[in-house]
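Can't paste images in this forum, so I'm doing it all in text. The chain is below; anyone willing to post the predicted structure tokens underneath?
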Amino acid sequence: MTGSSKECRAHAMGCLKQAELETPPGRITLLAIAQQWLRLATELENSETFLEVMNHIEKTWEDPREVRIITNGGSTPDA
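Text version of the structure:
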């Protein structure tokens, strides 16, 4: 099952709209469900951001064995 934070927020809005029509016990339940949808949306956004950063790092990563440190004199140190 896949989804997006946008879909989660839409589900939360649906719960909030339905909660307006319910009696207190049903309203409390729907408000709790809406809160969970919003929490899931936030977690998805955080995960998406994390994955974007990790993908960027992976694409730009250089093998440390290939990186040469340049000294003040502009030459590489003797290995």
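The chain has one domain: 5-60. The helical segments are 5-19, 24-60.
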